[in-house]
Specification:
17 helices; two-stranded parallel sheet; 5-stranded parallel sheet; elongated; 7% strand; 7 strands; 408 residues; alpha/beta; single chain
């Protein structure tokens, strides 16, 4: 094979295979210059084979580049088609909504508010809230406002009007024992009855339930608590302890980030309630602005007045099938006023502890009376249901224990 024919074949191969690029031209020139220097002997065959292999490799490279460009072009076309279909779907959805609204008569009725309140049992829950919680008028009003929003939203949906799930995440601020947990539980029941949550159950958590002690421990703990609360209400008590401003490596930040994501992505299936003292919660929100923007309902729980705490004690006794003797009420009322001025006062929780102490004293009194030698051992129903004056801790006893007494 002479050099002239070989050159012609190589150029023809290059033109047909990959349309002579500068890179192929340069490679051909180098190979041809090497061939011219080699004597015409048997070794020429080896050079020809090497040159042919080099040309095939470059041809494969060009083919791969063309394939990649085809794939990229196809991806661009597919993405453009996907966007076009999505825009068309949104346009058709809007048009269907307009047609549906135009088809609704102006005098069409969606139903009455009372009908939805009774049918879904919301009215019963609100009445139960009134019975369970003494006072707290602002809190009850706010809960009724949220219930009204849900009822009207359901009326709109009944007519086919556009509805969107409102932000139901809440922040409860107030001292311990002011009814935050009870209100959260009732809210879960209201949301479940109205169809805004699947189960309406309440899960109460603190920092210890959400934050781990070592690297990689926090995320599983937080996700496990969230999993338990899905379909209901998650109440995080003293939520400000999740963030430690003095420690950048605190694991609470990881838990907060998970909560923020869940509050945004799963707001239709989970209501998060943050609870704690107002001043600390305000400081917490200043550190975590993303949390504040996701909480749409802020409810403040005021401290109870002495008269309200006495009424709470009567409600507790009623639920336990007890009653306070008339002459015992003034003793207990004075105890409450004194106890409010001392340390470790927790509103309704303190009252509950005092009632439990009175029940224990009443049990000891009846036991000693029934086992007395001169007694027949009989105890009447009235005695079993009545808390006497001597069963309650007096102001004098409380003062004798000191101002820092923890035990009631």
């Amino acid at each position: 094979l002479n050099i002239r024919k070989f050159n012609f074949l190589l150029y023809k191969m290059a033109f047909v295979g990959y349309l002579v690029t500068p890179k192929s031209n340069e490679s051909l020139r180098k190979n041809l210059s090497q061939i011219r220097k080699v004597p015409r002997n048997f070794t020429n065959k080896k050079s020809i084979f090497q040159l042919s292999a080099s040309g095939n490799q470059q041809n494969n490279e060009v083919s791969d580049a063309l394939n990649e460009s085809d794939i990229e072009a196809r991806k661009i076309r597919e993405e453009a088609e996907r966007r076009r279909q999505e825009e068309e779907r949104i346009r058709m959805k809007k048009q269907m909504k307009i047609d549906r609204l135009n088809a609704i008569p102006e005098d069409a009725e969606a139903g009455t508010v009372e009908e939805f309140m009774y049918k879904d049992g919301v009215k019963d829950i609100l009445e139960q809230l009134d019975n369970d919680l003494v006072g707290l008028v602002p809190v009850k009003s706010r809960v009724k406002e949220i219930a009204a929003l849900l009822v009207v939203d359901k009326l709109r949906r009944n007519l086919g009007l556009d509805t969107g799930v409102p932000s139901l995440h809440m922040c409860f601020t107030g001292a311990p024992g002011t009814g935050k947990t009870t209100v959260a539980m009732r809210m879960g029941q209201i949301l479940q009855r109205m169809g805004y949550s699947r189960q309406g159950h309440l899960v109460v958590a603190t920092r210890d339930d959400l934050v781990g002690q070592y690297v990689g421990h926090t995320a599983p703990k937080t996700k496990e608590v969230i999993k338990k609360a899905m379909g209901g209400v998650l109440l995080i008590d003293e939520a400000y302890y999740l963030y430690n401003a003095s420690n950048d490596r605190d694991y609470g930040q990881e838990s907060i980030e998970i909560l923020l994501n869940v509050m945004e992505e799963n707001r239709e299936d989970l209501v998060v309630v943050l609870a704690g003292y107002k001043d600390r919660m305000d400081k917490f929100f200043s550190f975590i602005p993303g949390m504040s923007s996701r909480v749409g309902n802020h409810i403040e729980f005021p401290n109870y007045e002495p008269e309200e705490l006495l009424q709470i004690a009567k409600v507790m006794c009623r639920d336990l099938e007890y009653e306070i003797a008339p002459d015992a009420e003034p003793v207990f009322f004075e105890y409450i006023k004194k106890r409010m001025t001392m340390s470790f006062f927790s509103n309704a929780r303190t009252v509950r502890n005092a009632v439990d102490r009175a029940r224990m004293r009443a049990a000891i009194r009846l036991f000693n009376k029934a086992t007395d030698k001169g007694s027949n051992g009989m105890v009447s129903k009235q005695e079993l249901m009545t808390l006497e004056k001597s069963d309650f801790v007096s102001v004098e006893e409380l003062a004798a224990r000191g101002d820092n007494a923890i035990v009631e």
